[in-house]
Amino acid sequence: MSSHGAPIPMTSDRSGPLTGTADVPGDKSISHRSLILGALAVGETKVTGLLEGQDVLDTAAAMRSFGAEVEKRGDTWHVHGVGVGGFEEPDHVIDCGNSGTGVRLIMGAMATTGIAATFTGDASLNGRPMARVTDPLALFGAQAFGRSGGRLPMTILGASDPLPVRYAVPVPSAQVKSAVLLAGLNAPGETVVIEREATRDHSERMLAGFGAEVRVEDTDEGRVITLTGQPELRPQEIVVPRDPSSAAFPVCAALITEGSDVLVPNIGLNPTRAGLFTTLQEMGADLTFENPREEGGEPVADLRARFSPGMKGIEVPPERAASMIDEYPVLSAVAACAEGRTLMTGVRELRVKESDRIDAMAKGLRACGVEVEEGEDWWAVTGRGAGGVPGGATVESRLDHRIAMSFLVLGLAAQARITVDDAGPIATSFPVFEPLMTALGARIARGGA
Ligand SMILES: O=C(O)C1=C[C@@H](OP(=O)(O)O)[C@@H](O)[C@H](O)C1
Ligand SMILES: C=C(OP(=O)(O)O)C(=O)O
């Protein structure tokens, strides 16, 4: 919801060994898609392991506003869908809270139905660019009326007579790709999306699982995804794997905190999501994948992370950026505890997330005594070595869950306490972060410095 409550300051202090098992929640990307595709299927989709973070709960509420029934019974979420093209016009504003994924995918899903809907979010989401989605939706015949700069609040008037579209996505964004595919569901004929760099492919996988005809080809132009419109989607039983982007926090905390040995079981390791773990291994992290297996069409393993005092800074290749885009903030916390310089390039997209993540991390890291250089689409962190980060600062989380969690992780290995001015946004993606981390032995607590 857009009304963000009073700030919740949180502190993090140098901790003894982190040990035990960290059961992180379900994948955020897959959770949003389960609810949206469930709402577009004919009949009842059942979802277990759904992330019950505020971002996903806002998407559940939105699906109800478009006419789907969404309710939790026991451990299972039941979504009674209205069929492709069956969305009702909401009689109130759709509030997507803090969630770029929620608003952009839902705009896509309604854009080829002849209804209107008005979207808003919190101060962070209302500052983020939406033209990247409304430009391709206009090709289907949808119209967008938003604030200047293509910002929310925004009304989308869906196309009542949509045309299929061929669209090359100009930025590496799974949200834009997914919005176009979801719009293509209710357009006749074939909608084609081309992406130069492969981004997370959960939409393609799940659309196929629901019975849509989806073809993916790797060509010289990039990945070409062809969707045949107006299918009848068949309801599914979905088991959501655990989120690698959330697993990143206990994993990175264990790597930098002396004596730690932490198991993070059942993590989804779709190659379009797993770039952080490759990067950490290249830095010399003691990180292993145990019991690799397949579950629900996604590769899964148990991650084991142990304190790794000898990590070295590296150059992270730009072509890996999409597969770890949400993990750069916490990677920069690890880089601060490594030896030498970690250079991260091809990461312009970090500037348009819940906050400008390069700026937010750079300012906070500098306040903690860490040297950071930055340019428009790159940044570099010079590590202080294990146990070498001075800390002792209060940093701003800027309505950004990943900034808040990254500094709380860094505080576990810093010489003096790190305070985050508002840890409230953590509830958007990882509502059990605080109890999970404290159960491992992390000295994270509510309250100011
Ligand atoms: O499609 C998705 O589920 C997501 C795509 C990414 O955003 P972009 O599409 O803006 O890269 C990512 O940052 C976000 O957390 C989730
Ligand atoms: C960028 C993120 O989310 P979204 O774009 O959905 O707000 C994120 O979770 O790091």
Automatic annotation (TrEMBL):
Belongs to the EPSP synthase family. This is 3-phosphoshikimate 1-carboxyvinyltransferase. The lineage of its organism: Bacteria, Pseudomonadati, Pseudomonadota, Alphaproteobacteria, Rhodobacterales. PROSITE patterns: EPSP_SYNTHASE_1 (PS00104), EPSP_SYNTHASE_2 (PS00885). One of its GO terms (cellular component) is cytoplasm. Its EC number is 2.5.1.19. 3-phosphoshikimate binds at residues 28-29, 33, 173, 175, 326, 353. GO terms for biological process: amino acid biosynthetic process; aromatic amino acid family biosynthetic process; chorismate biosynthetic process. Phosphoenolpyruvate binds at residues 28, 100, 128, 175, 357, 402. Keywords: Amino-acid biosynthesis, Aromatic amino acid biosynthesis, Cytoplasm, Transferase. It is an enzyme of class 2 (transferase). Transmembrane segments: none annotated. Its main location: cytoplasm. The active site is at residue 326. Residues 15-435 form the Enolpyruvate transferase domain. Residues 1-26 are annotated as: Disordered. GO terms for molecular function: 3-phosphoshikimate 1-carboxyvinyltransferase activity. It catalyses: 3-phosphoshikimate + phosphoenolpyruvate = 5-O-(1-carboxyvinyl)-3-phosphoshikimate + phosphate. It is found in: Cytoplasm. Catalyzes the transfer of the enolpyruvyl moiety of phosphoenolpyruvate (PEP) to the 5-hydroxyl of shikimate-3-phosphate (S3P) to produce enolpyruvyl shikimate-3-phosphate and inorganic phosphate. Monomer. InterPro entries: Enolpyruvate_Tfrase_dom, Enolpyruvate_Tfrase_sf, EPSP_synthase, EPSP_synthase_CS, RNA3'P_cycl/enolpyr_Trfase_a/b.
